[in-house]
Design a protein that fits this description.
Distance between the termini: 19 Å
Strand content: 15-25%
Number of strands: 11
Low-confidence stretches: none
Shape: globular
Helix content: 25-40%
Amino acid sequence: MGLRDWDHLVPVATGEVRPEGFELDLESRAVTPDVLSEPGLDGGETSFSRYVLGRAAGDDRLVGLPVFVMRGFRHRCVLVRRDSELTSLEELKGARIGLTGWPDSGNTWTRALLRAAGVDIRGIEWTVGPLVAGETGKDRVGPVPFPDNVSLTGDGLAEGLAEGRYDAIMTPFMPDEFFTPDSRFRHLLPDHRAAELAYYRETGFVPGIHLVTLKREAVERDPGLPQAVQNLLERSKRHWLARRRLLADTTPWLLADLTETARTFGPDWMPYGVAPNAAMIAAFCEELHAQGISNRRIRPEEVFDI
């Protein structure tokens, strides 16, 4: 199984949490694997968007587990120049925006924020490209044609923003410069954390970005495998959280953050399973269709077999 180095998976990778009823060979990946294209993999981390689009097209070669190993709010993912006058999503009407991929899950969620703010995404001049020139290992195009207002570039979006070619960029990962005192960039929203909290109180979820999938032939060999894998990753997540609460020194304010997270979201801000993620799954399926990425409105019950 190919997965990236998410903290909550570390207990499985180190053997502190072991599988029950099956053997696991876990491979750490720098980028999300294409599970179907690798004969040596029985499963792995998969883009939520690519998985749902496959299901919408009738491709059921992957069995998705409602185990979202990557989740995150997207308000923080919109950057502008430090000297920009823009401070709200509503002000992006008719803007020039660069983003790091068109059909991918994260940018789908970010465009959903614009739509919710009353911004017509068809009126934006979009440019899809790498955050930094020369980045490789990501399919930025996807399986469906781009709309007419979307173009591709090989130039770095961060430099394009700095040079004034874009009014804003959307990126899940901050450029290195962002962490320096004299960075040319800032978040669009002056208080993105407050906006994210308001979003959670309105929707009841933190958006899912990547999930775990298994090849159907692996499930046919062992029908109990999906639930066994989900149980393993649930135990790993709980073990990781317990250790973080005990050794809360990864960052200077981690303990305060862990406390506030528990008070805000309850015991688990990233629940696994279909039922606790039903609203999020339905919202994402709706956005894929509303944004023209999926040519049909896939029903949430079509997404997962378990």
